[in-house]
Amino acid sequence: MARIFSGIQPTGIAHLGNYLGAIQNWVALQEGNEGIYCLVDLHAITVWQDPHALRAQTRTNAALLMACGIDPSRSILFHQSAVHAHARLAWIFNCVARFGWLNRMTQFKDKAGKDREAVSTGLFVYPNLMAADILAYHATEVPVGDDQSQHLELANDIAQKFNHDYETEFFPVIHPRIIGGTARIMSLRDGAKKMSKSDTSDQSRINLTDDNDTIAQKIRRAKTDPADLPDHPEKLEGRPEARNLVGIFAALADITQAEVLRLHGNQGFGHLKEQLTALVVEKLTPIREETNRLAADPTHIDTILQQGAARAAAIANPIVAEAERLVGMLPAA
Ligand code: ATP
Ligand code: MG
Predict the structure, then answer these.
(1) CA-CA distance, 231 to 177, in Å (whole number)?
(2) Best exposed site among 117, 182, 284, 302 by fewest CB in 10 Å?
(3) Whose CA is nearest to atom 16 of ligand 1?
(4) Where is this region: Disordered (predicted)?
C-alpha cells in the first residue's frame, strides 16, 4: 500500500483537463492505497483571489472531487490552510531550495509573464510549498498532469539536498504518476496552451459544472483547422487543435486515437464534435448533478474538510516536527 498525495488549486472550477489528467487517476488510485487529496488554497493565493470567491470555490471543488468519486471516508480530503505543517515545512524548504533552481521553473515564467517585478514572491516559491505538501506526509506516489513534472523533479532535488545537508535519509524519493495521453489537455481556443482554470477565456475550457448547452456551445466553437481529419494519428503532427479533440475523444470513449480516426477520419470536424459533445455530456451530467446536491449543504462540506484536516495533521505533524528537530529547532511543546 502506497501513500498518494495530490492537490488542486481552488483558483476556479475544476475542468476537463484536471479530470482527465489528475482527478480520474486519484479516484482509481484510492483502491489499495492511502489517498491524501488537498484543496491547495495556500497555492491559490500566490495570485490574488477574491476572498468570497476563494471560499466558494474551495467548497465547490471539494464537492466536485466527491462527485467524481473521491470517498472522504476512505481517502483524506481537506484544505491545505487547515494543516499548518505545510507552511512550516515550506519555510524550511525555502531555505533549502536554491534561487537558481526556482528561476528555471517554466510554470513561474508562464504565470509571471512579462512583468516579473510585479508578481508575488509566493508565486516564485510555489514549488517549495508543493514539495512540502508531498513530503510532509512522506508520500511517494504523486498523480499529476505533466505540467507538474518539473515541480516534482525539484521536490526530489529539495528532498535530496535536505537529506545531504542534515546527514539523514529522512525524506523519501517521490515517483510522479503522469498518465500518457491525458496528461496534458489543451485549451479549446489555442492548441499550444494547456487548458487552465486561470485562462481568462471561459471558452478555453470545459468546467466540470458546465451545463449541457454550454458544453455543446464550447465544443462547437472549439478552434480547428481547415483540413479534414486525417485517417491516422501520425498525421495529427503539426495540428494541435485536431490532436487535442481526438485525444479528449479517445480518453472519454476509452478507445485509441487510431480508432477515433477510423470512425471520424477523412471528413470535417462536425461529426467528431457532435459525438464528442454527447460523450462529454454523458460523463459530466452525473458529476454536475451530484456536485449541486452536495453544494447545497456547505456546512456538511466544511465538516468533511475539517475532519480530513484532523486526519491529515495527525500524519504530517510528527513528520514536520522531526524535520524541524533535524534542522536544529527546539521542540514546540
Ligand atoms: P491554474 O490555472 O490555477 O494553475 P490548473 O487548471 O492548472 O489551474 P491546477 O490546480 O494547477 O489546475 O492543477 C491540478 C491538477 O490538474 C494538477 O495535477 C495538474 O497537473 C493537472 N492539470 C492541470 N491542467 C491540466 C491539463 N490541461 N491537462 C491535464 N492535466 C492538467
Ligand atoms: Mg496549474
Answers:
(1) 31
(2) 117
(3) 18
(4) 194-214
Taking 3-state DSSP, the helix, strand and coil percentages for the chain, each rounded to the nearest 5, stand at 60, 10, 30
**Cα-based torsion angle of the residue sequence 28, 30, 35, 39 in order, rounded to the nearest 10 degrees:** 50
Indicate if 111 belongs to the active site.
Answer: yes
Interval between CA 15 and ligand 1 midpoint (Å): 8
| Strand runs labelled E in 219-296 | none
Which among 127, 153, 142, 130 is positioned nearest to 176, based on CA atoms?
142
Domain chopping of the chain, boundaries:
3-177+297-327, 202-293
Ligand 2 center from residue 10 Cα (angstroms)? 10
CATH number of 3-177+297-327: 3.40.50.620
pLDDT grade for 66, boundaries at 50, 70 and 90: very high
Q: What CATH topology corresponds to 202-293? A: Tyrosyl-Transfer RNA Synthetase (1.10.240)
Angle at 51 between CA 45 and CA 55, to 5 degrees: 90
Among residues 197, 218, 273, 283, the one annotated as catalytic is 197
Distance (Å) from CA 145 to ligand 2 centroid: 9
